[in-house]
Design goal:
Blueprint (H helix, E strand, L loop, with lengths): L1 E6 L2 E4 L4 E9 L3 E10 L6 E6 L5 E3 L7 E6 L4 E6 L8 E12 L2 E7 L3 E6 L1
Parallel strand pairs: 2-11
Antiparallel strand pairs: 1-3, 3-8, 4-5, 4-9, 5-6, 7-8, 9-10, 9-11
Length: 121
């Protein structure tokens, strides 16, 4: 079994910064791509940023230049540094990891429980 636990959400004023973390644990052999997604009320979950094992990154246009995704492969941890936050960034943020396990053998997507980010104007 694999668990992803996010932390670092909270309330911040517009223009401020937050750093989200996502720690993966359990029967992990290796982790392929990881990413952050967010969900607005009554909307579909949308991609924020992704990062491959080799460090190749991809960002949604709405966060380019403000958010930075990084990962620590040794600790199976994912980060999202969010700067210049705007009220429209208010959402529940989820991390996702594509995990390879040996017992049982396979590759599956795993999601964290989500962390609320609220940006006040």
């Amino acid at each position: 079994q694999v668990q992803l636990v996010e932390s670092g959400g909270g309330l911040v004023q517009a223009g401020g910064s937050l750093r989200l973390s996502c720690a993966a644990s359990g029967r992990i052999s290796s982790i392929n791509a990881m990413g952050w997604y967010r969900q607005f009320p009554e909307k579909e979950r949308e991609l924020v940023a992704t990062i491959t094992t080799g460090g190749f990154t991809n960002y949604a246009d709405s966060v380019k230049g403000r958010f930075t995704i990084t990962r620590d492969n040794g600790w199976n941890t994912l980060y999202l540094q969010m700067n210049s936050l705007k009220p429209e960034d208010t959402a529940v943020y989820y991390c996702k990891a594509i995990v390879i396990t040996l017992t049982p053998l396979g590759q599956n997507d795993y999601w964290g429980q989500g962390t609320q980010v609220t940006v006040s104007s």
